[in-house]
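debug: dumping io for the single-chain case to check the tokenizer round-trip. Nothing else runs in this session.
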Amino acid sequence: MEEITHKMCPIKVGNLSGQPLVSVIVSNYNYCKYIEQAIRSVFDQTYCNLEVIVCDDGSTDRSVEVLNGLVNIDARLKIIIQKNQGQSKSINTGFSVSKGEIICLLDADDLFLPSKVQEVVDVFVQDEENGACSHFLKVIDSDGRITGETIPSQLDEGFVGNKILKKGGNGYFAPTSGLSYRREVFECITPLPDNLRISADAYITQAAAFITKIVCINNCLGCYRIHGRNNYQGTININNLRYLVEELVPSTFIACRNFLSAFSGDEVAAHLKLDQSTYYLENIVIYCCLSGAKVDEVSPFSEKHVFSSLPYTARSKMLYLLYKSPRLISSTIARALLSNNFIRTVLGPLGKVLGFKKT
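debug: decoded output
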């Protein structure tokens, strides 16, 4: 690995103007309940030199009606209506008409806090080697009430391309509404692959991390809404897990490897391996625990390979025990045992007692 990774280095980005234009791209699909709040949170920013580009991806609810009612609220708002093609195509469409030197992404059900854009501009201006910026988000419920949670738990910073190459692309990244990029970086990683209809941020964060430095703002600058329709956040959903294991992660992996091959060459791309992704391997086992399926039925890897590739932690030991006795444990109990809260409050202390590494 060492003789390969030296070929990976961040790209150079140009100088920013004194008050750079910021393009906020919002991809919307059937979020008529939240889209107006999202848009207004951008126009409530303390930084004014911005444009908001909303691409509605063929919504079947009242989204288009709501958006048409907002056309005249601010000249900086651009609305695009297209047939349903998925989140990647929606973001591609929005980016294609954008003019900003900085690109901020916002999910249609989330919010920006008032100082978000100004703080993003400040960190990019302070160090023009940074091509990506991420920050934490407060979790809110469907009615906008703060739950007290913050996501993600931690964030990668600096140039982490070589590090995540060794981890199958895994890193600590913010979700969509916590992501901002210099235009030069976004031009390199777009167009986003058409087949990534949801969770396009998985590809965006990994591809960008291979080519640019990330600066992190250690504050919550936005709100991430959990309302029961989110993908892969909140309670465990077996259908989402199956999609994640069988389609989303493998498709994202292939897209990232293709990008890396085009950008850094086949020799570097060959070192990106799916079985080095702890995130993917753990979710294979979690899905199997809840569904009763076997590892080799839902993944390209054998049971032995998956468990030998997982780090030896309290979490992986619990996953192994659950996997080996799935029919003895009800789905409800399995969900409880696999929750993040259980892992934090029980498996952490238990791991210390049993001598496992900290999860």
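debug: round-trip ok. The chain has two domains: 2-225, 238-354.
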